[in-house]
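We emphasize that the prediction below concerns an isolated chain of 299 residues; any contacts that depend on oligomerization or on bound cofactors are therefore not represented. The input was used exactly as deposited, without trimming of termini.
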Amino acid sequence: MTAATHAPAAVEVPRHHAFGRFCRAYAKRPAGLAGLGLLVAFGALALAAPLFIGDDQLNVIKVDGPQLSPPVDGYPLGTDQAGRSVLLLVIWGARESLSIGIIATALTVVLGSAVGLLAGHYQGRVGQGLMHVTDWFIALPSLPLAISLSAVLGQGAASITIAIAVTSWTATARLVRAQTLAVEARPFIERARALGAGNTQIMIRHVLPNVMPLILVSSTLTVASAILSEATLTFLGLGDPTSVTWGSMLQAAFAGGAVTAGAWWYLIPPGIAILIVVLGFTLVGRAVEHVLNPRMVGR
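Result of the prediction step, given as a token string:
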């Protein structure tokens, strides 16, 4: 019998192996670990807040602490003009600030990825039309548009979330479109078409998995921007006045005369909380980008 030489079949790497390699590579990025630690700490505090913060500590009618008092025993970060603990307000404010930022980012990534994927795959009138819409949104000033949308939709977390998503999806759309064009120029896409793959199959099974790393990096960086946008809109008075967020704390501090009274303990903590969370997401996003993008190795 004549022995035939066969080329070894390509073996697909299991997903858990790929995830393990990603975790090991990420663990070598000290800045990424520091950012992840900051986010885990804030996330744990936000989730556990209802366990040690009651309504009597947040309700301006029920609290009995000293009004606008500097840090003293029992109030490590002082109190606000109603006598509530600033420390407890910062911890409770993380719940809504983070939730709005994450939900707005999810909507932004879904909308931007869908537009970018369709615009990159359908390069005719459909793609051109989608990019014209994208360019139109880019030309509009994002902050005035977000303010207008929030004012029209009404005060509240839902209106702010929608306003952030509507004004933030364009960057993701352009990134995904560029990556989609690069992926669809590769030979395996031509082979898939030759084998009878349709447009939906090509986009979902072949293109989307190859652009997911870019979407992941974009989403981690978008969360930071969304949290800043939420704080800005809430500070301008477009949020729910009954909810505690970092932006509403800053707005209440300015409205309550904390600046003229020199109540630095009321102004600085929410600002530092925003800074730390934004820094954490930025460090995580940069670390993920270095791990997933081989061209950035050594930078």
